[in-house]
Amino acid sequence: MTPGPTSTTFTRWLGAAVLVGMVWLVVFGLVISPDDRVQGEGVRIMYVHVPSAWLAYLAFIVTGIASACYLIPRTRSLTWDRIAGASAEIGVLFMGITLVTGSMWGHLSWNTYWTWDSRLTTTAFLFITYIGYLAVRGLGGSLQQRAKRSAVIALIAVLEVPLVHFSVTLWRPLHQDESVAKGELENLMLFSLFVGIIAFTLLYVWLLLHRQRVMSMEDAVAERGLDAAIAERRSEVAR
Amino acid sequence: MEQVVRLSDVVAVLGGFPVLAGATLSVESGEIVLLQGPNGAGKTSLLRLCAGLLPVERGDATVLGVDLAIDRRAVRPLVGLLGHANGLYGDLTVDDNVRFWGATVGATPDEVAGAMDRMGLSGRLAPVVVNKLSAGQRRRTALACLVVRRARLWLLDEPHAGLDAAGRDDLDATLRQAAASGATVVVASHELERAGSLATRVVNVAGGQVQP
Amino acid sequence: MSPWRIARLVAAKDLRIERRSHIITNQVLPFAALVMVLFAFALDNDDALTRVAPGLVWMATLFSLVVLVQRTFAVEAADNALDALVVAGVRPEGIFHGKAMALAAQLAVLEAVLLAAAMVLYRVELRGEGIALLAVTFVVATLGLAFVGTLYGGLAAGAKGRETLLPLLMLPVVAPVLIGATRATEAALGTNDATPSEGWPWIGLLALFAVLFGAGGTYAFGSLLDD
């Protein structure tokens, strides 16, 4: 099997849709939508921050579902493992973006880089948990071992994150300013936000498909390496 | 004669490396089979596979009636593996260790005492902390733990290492006695002298395969 | 052999090892006390110390938990004993509960010492009305920590090259325990004018955590061991 591009007709159309979506987002987010009465231009960070957060949580849910699918004997397949891993990588990236943009937004609006409100804190925890998940994926061993280990860790994380969120919410009830910021969105801003979410979701699917296919090729290389290694090992005897 | 071990073209992988590259082996009940071969040949991996520790990547593997590709966990209570490490708790005494392992299978105090006796561990050595024992004494303690667990298939990886001449002869006698009382023994060793005195059959392992 | 019997065996074995080696008493407890002293150096304010004492006690507990978990699995890894247990087909649920129980017992001793240290070093005072809440908090939190520690320990501790993974995996997960236990302890001690009645809801969180990870760990421990 010679490695080829990971794109198909579907992903090319999808990629085009992503580009269009992003252009729309830029136009709506930076140009058409109005300034916020209170926050001014700064509110535009929301058009990156909120879709990023949405994408990060979506990726997290997909990792959880894919991990469960791998562990159920009837649906066990390494494809689920690769989807889980690819989704986690994308999720970590966008969680990072969420945290950074959130921090920037916080600085612009309330002059602090960080607040301990439940949503931001839970996201930070999710971020660290997923870095741990990726570290576990890197532990080595056979593909099946990697898949089983990370699936178990992912499902424990699914247990853990609501708990963290719940406890942080009890600890610091929703930050007051946040409800103010969310409460007064004009229709145009809402629409721009909607465009952003759609565009980012398409981006996520596109990234996931490509990354999953690259992983599949990486695993195939490892397998092929295995055949070569087996042949070489057998030839040890001949010496 | 019951077929205790039946491996057919088995491939096993450890960290991407094919430690077994198509191994075929048959062992019947009551045999003492000696696996010989240089370091890195795959003897240890063969033993660990039979113990249900190594996943079967390709090929068929049946041990004591259990298909290892389907459920390698099921074979474990039936099998005793003694590898390079002894599986002992260094901070506990010989007595503690053998008793612990005996308790995992519900062995009676008599069985525990008997196991320690057979390995020459009763008396002076019993209350000694394992960390303070010599290598040979630790090996004997590990074997006592194997005996007390009533394993039907014994998989021993270089068991003679660290034993003096008397210890080795003792070990051989124990193994022959175990085989006579129904256990099957597979020993991996790169010592050629053992072939005559111990084994009923010698098998050569090289390059992750068993030589016909 | 039922998992429960195995659990008792394994727990007894772990505690016996500690009795003979005294690692906890000679190394971990002094470490925990040292952490408490270092907090005082860092915070350098007696009033602040008394106010944040509950948090510091639980932080010191978490740091010590990492060390305890590493120890309990190092004991197994030293001569491949855990491998041997797995090879022997000993039920992993039994091993999980046994090691968790032993870990809980060791944690309980550690926490008692830390509480005493807080009373001495940070001038924490116990109130009669908060004693029940305090006791329940410690018990329930300890259970949760023991389950999580044993679960992640099985994966990360003891195996070469993985020790550094343990804190990274385990500490985010025990964050709810830190929050819940600290708030409940504050309520029990009357810090920041909290009353015991405010503490009991947090016990619910701690109990939920312990139940979830007790169940989850029972199910998952076997797979994580099966390397």
List keywords for this structure.
heterotrimer; A: 239 residues; mainly alpha; 7 helices; 80% helix; C: 227 residues; 9 helices; 0% strand
What does this structure look like?
The complex is a heterotrimer of chains A (239), B (212) and C (227). By secondary structure, chain A is mainly α. Chain A has seven helices and no strands. Chain A has a domain of 149 residues. The mean pLDDT of chain A is 81. In chain B, the strands form two sheets. Chain B has a six-stranded mixed beta sheet, with helices on both faces. In chain B, a hairpin with a 2-residue loop joins β4 and β5. In chain B, α4 runs antiparallel to α5. The relative contact order of chain B is 0.21. Chain C has one domain. The chains are: A mainly alpha (239), B alpha/beta (212), C mainly alpha (227). The interface between B and C is medium-sized, with 31 and 22 residues.
What topology emerges from the helices and strands here?
The complex is a heterotrimer of chains A (239), B (212) and C (227).
Chain A: H1 9-32, H2 46-71, H3 78-110, H4 118-137, H5 143-171, H6 176-183, H7 187-238
Chain B: E1 3-14, E2 17-28, E3 32-36, H1 43-50, E4 58-63, E5 66-67, H2 68-71, E6 79-82, H3 94-104, H4 109-118, H5 135-148, E7 153-157, H6 165-180, E8 184-188, H7 194-197, E9 201-206, E10 209-210
Parallel strand pairs in B: 3-8, 3-9, 6-7, 7-8
Antiparallel strand pairs in B: 1-2, 1-4, 4-5, 9-10
Helix pairs in contact in B: 3-4, 3-5, 4-5
Chain C: H1 3-21, H2 23-43, H3 46-77, H4 81-87, H5 92-121, H6 131-156, H7 165-173, H8 175-189, H9 196-225
Helix pairs in contact in C: 1-5, 2-3, 2-5, 3-5, 3-6, 3-8, 5-6, 5-9, 6-7, 6-8, 6-9, 8-9
